Amino acid sequence: MKRLLAAMTAAALMISACAGGASPTPSSPPAAASPSTAASPTAPPEPVTIKIVHQFGDAESDKFGEIVAEFEAENPTIKVEQERNNEQNYYDKLVTTILGGSAPDIARVEPPKAAQYIAAGYAAKLDDFVAAKVQADFFEGTLEPLTKDGSLYGVPQDVAVLSLFYRTDLFQAAGIGGPPATWDELVTAAKALTKDDTYGIGLFGGWGAFEFYPWFWQAGGEMLKEEGGKLAPAFNSPEGVAALQFWVDLVKTYKVMPEGTATQGEDEVKGPFIAGRIAMFTSGSWSISSLKEVKEIDGKWAVAPLPKGKQEASVLGGMDVIILEQSKHKAEAAKFLEFWMRDDIQLDWAKSLGFLPVRKSLYGDPFFKSDPFIQAFSQQLEVARSRPTIAQAGEIDDLFGKAVQAALSGAMTPQEALDSAAAKATEVLAGS
């Protein structure tokens, strides 16, 4: 496990006071020290306050609050101020504070944004705080967006991968023996599951391209290519168009996916899944705990690998944590990250919230070995890929996501949507 080595050395000052000489006669009492000369105790240092901004959900935020409280109890000279912003302006606001010279000490960001901020010089190097050998305990690919020119600028805060959630009761009622293993099997199963007010599958574009990446890679698509020694967009290739056309066909041709999912998020799909109106959707391990709480569907759902296209693939998600270069308390911020990444803290975090452990060594814990849901996700991690991690990754990812939305909504054909996004991505890569 990666431990942040940010140990602060506190120097203790020894103060020695010597009393005066003996009294002239034994009967004379010692003179009392005057108030002006009496030694006064050393005042404790004022606590250093570090600020972290994040977009945790309710359950995550509650658990994170417990972590902060435990850290402050162990480190009374460091206070942690939290700012939770679940609005769409999260990243705009973060950049505004950076440009205005009032950046937080720590920020939780998605990988493409981490790569972008590192390239812009917003993030601080962590080489002095993170042992190189610790990096081997993180999953391959999770450090890619956090590394530049051989230096580390952040740590993965959690790891995620998309898998297929399906309603076993609906499958049994439709006479389907198990989850689909291929795209063709997916279409066949979705058709059999779609009837009345129930749809076979629910996929969505409200998270940009995140949900679409696995299908794109499974079709053989690649985001970028090298042309003349420079990077150029490649996602509007025949393979990329075929993947997006498949999504559109699920709505328009096969009619096994509801209309209006272009801008919907996970909640708009998960709700119908719980209600039995959507038989399949893709999500990460973060959905496990919330679904387990719904007693009405207890034992009526399961998790499986995503159905395979030309090849197997899923998207490596999760969030990263960076320390901002503007921070005046980098050592204290790094000490908090070290605490946050500690074995016992990470195990409690993952177990409590139903998350995948962020470090490989933690999968040996008996709790995760015996959990069929976690095991299903750990299998998917073997074929998971990271989104682009170049400096312009955030902008290109945004363009790619808007193309998915445009095609799903019917505003453009898949070819038109991807061509338009590729033209704009070419300008971004050229520095226009």
Provide a descriptive summary of the structure in words.
The chain is 38% helix and 15% strand. It is α/β, with parallel strands linked by helices. It has 15 helices and 13 strands. The strands form four sheets. Strands 1, 2, 3, 6, 12 and 13 form a six-stranded mixed beta sheet that branches. Strands 10-7-11 form a three-stranded antiparallel beta sheet.
The best one-word shape is globular
Tell me the name of the CATH class of the largest domain.
Alpha Beta
CATH topology of the largest domain, by name, is D-Maltodextrin-Binding Protein, domain 2
| Mean model confidence by pLDDT | 87
The total count of helices amounts to 15
Keywords:
single chain; 6-stranded mixed β-sheet; 15 helices; D-Maltodextrin-Binding Protein, domain 2; 432 residues; 3-stranded antiparallel β-sheet; globular; alpha/beta
What's the short version?
The protein has 432 residues and is an alpha/beta fold. It is 38% helix and 15% strand. It has helices at 58-74, 90-99, 111-120, 168-173, 183-193, 213-218, 238-252, 266-275, 286-292, 330-340, 343-353, 366-369, 372-381, 393-409, 414-430; strands at 48-54, 78-84, 106-109, 147-148, 151-152, 154-161, 163-167, 224-227, 230-233, 280-283, 301-304, 314-323, 384-385.
Secondary structure elements and their pairing?
Layout: E1 48-54, H1 58-74, E2 78-84, H2 90-99, E3 106-109, H3 111-120, E4 147-148, E5 151-152, E6 154-161, E7 163-167, H4 168-173, H5 183-193, H6 213-218, E8 224-227, E9 230-233, H7 238-252, H8 266-275, E10 280-283, H9 286-292, E11 301-304, E12 314-323, H10 330-340, H11 343-353, H12 366-369, H13 372-381, E13 384-385, H14 393-409, H15 414-430
Parallel strand pairs: 1-2, 1-3, 12-13
Antiparallel strand pairs: 3-12, 4-5, 6-12, 7-10, 7-11, 8-9
Helix pairs in contact: 1-11, 14-15
